[in-house]
C-alpha cells in the first residue's frame, strides 16, 4: 500500500511526496507546494502523521583542543632508590611536576652567567632543560655541578633530589645515585667516576683516606662509604665554593692530573 502526502492548510509550504510501502522515497517525486523553500514534509503512512526533515541542521563548529604542556618525566630511576623517603624515586617524580618547587637561577649565581634570565624556573624544567641536556657550551658538566651545589647551599633539603653538597670551601660530597639520576645518566659509575667519566676527565678526584679521616673529626661524614657517597675536590683549586666563572670554565674536558 502506498501512502500519499496530504496538503496541510496550516503549512502551505510543505512538500508533496509519495512514499513506497517500505517507507522509502521514490526519486524525483518531491515537488514544492508554493514558492518558498521547505524545511520539512508531512507524510501519511498507515494512518500516522510523520514529519521528515529535508535540510540537515548546520554543522556544529569544532572546538580547538587545548594544547597540553608536556610535563617533565624521569629519565633515569635507579632501582636502589625504589624506597620510601625524601630521596626516593617516588619523591623525585613528584618534585618533577611540582609547580611550586621553583629555583631562581640568577639569584643563586648560576653559570654560565650570560645564559640565565631573571626568571624563576620550576625544578622539573631545570632538570629536563638544563641538567639532562647534552653537554654543550651553555651546560657543561662543571656548570651543572656548580649550579646543583648552589641550590643545595641555599636549601639543604634539595640534597635529597640533587645528591651533591659542599662540606668545606673546597670539598663536596656526591651521592652517585641521586646525582646520576638528576643528570639522566643510565650507567652511573661509568658516566661519573671511570677514567673517561665526568669527574676524572674534568680534573676532579676523590679525597685520600688520610684527608677523609681528618675531615671526620670536624664534620658528620657517617654516610661516606667511598662507593655510593664520595668526597670529591679539584686539586688545582679551580673548583671551589668561592670560584669565579673563569675558574670554573677552566675545568675542561681532559684537564686531568
TrEMBL record:
This is Initiator binding domain-containing protein. Pfam families: IBD (PF10416). It comes from Tritrichomonas foetus. Residues 56-82 are annotated as: Disordered. Residues 122-220 form the Initiator binding domain.
Amino acid at each position: 500500500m502506498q501512502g500519499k502526502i496530504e496538503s496541510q492548510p496550516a503549512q502551505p509550504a510543505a512538500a508533496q511526496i509519495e512514499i513506497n510501502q517500505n517507507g522509502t522515497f521514490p526519486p524525483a517525486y518531491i515537488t514544492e507546494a508554493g514558492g518558498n523553500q521547505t524545511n520539512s514534509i508531512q507524510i501519511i503512512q498507515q494512518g500516522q502523521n510523520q514529519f521528515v526533515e529535508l535540510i540537515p541542521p548546520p554543522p556544529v563548529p569544532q572546538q580547538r583542543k587545548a594544547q597540553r604542556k608536556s610535563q617533565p618525566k624521569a629519565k633515569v630511576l635507579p632501582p636502589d632508590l625504589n624506597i620510601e623517603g625524601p630521596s626516593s624515586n617516588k619523591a623525585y617524580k613528584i618534585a618533577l611536576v611540582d609547580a611550586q618547587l621553583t629555583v631562581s637561577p640568577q639569584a643563586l649565581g648560576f653559570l654560565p652567567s650570560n645564559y640565565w634570565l631573571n626568571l624563576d624556573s620550576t625544578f622539573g624544567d631545570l632538570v629536563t632543560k638544563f641538567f639532562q641536556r647534552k653537554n654543550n657550551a651553555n651546560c657543561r658538566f662543571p656548570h651543572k655541578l656548580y649550579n646543583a651545589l648552589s641550590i643545595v647551599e641555599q636549601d639543604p633539603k634539595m640534597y635529597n633530589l640533587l645528591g651533591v653538597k659542599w662540606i668545606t670551601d673546597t670539598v663536596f660530597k656526591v651521592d652517585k645515585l641521586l646525582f646520576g639520576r638528576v643528570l639522566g645518566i643510565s650507567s652511573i659509575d661509568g658516566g661519573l667516576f671511570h677514567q673517561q667519566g665526568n669527574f676524572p676527565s674534568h680534573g676532579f678526584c676523590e679525597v685520600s683516606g688520610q684527608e677523609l679521616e681528618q675531615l671526620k673529626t670536624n664534620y658528620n661524614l657517617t654516610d661516606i662509604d667511598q662507593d655510593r657517597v664520595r668526597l670529591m675536590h679539584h686539586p688545582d683549586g679551580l673548583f671551589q665554593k668561592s670560584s669565579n666563572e673563569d675558574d670554573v670554565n677552566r675545568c675542561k674536558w681532559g684537564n686531568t692530573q
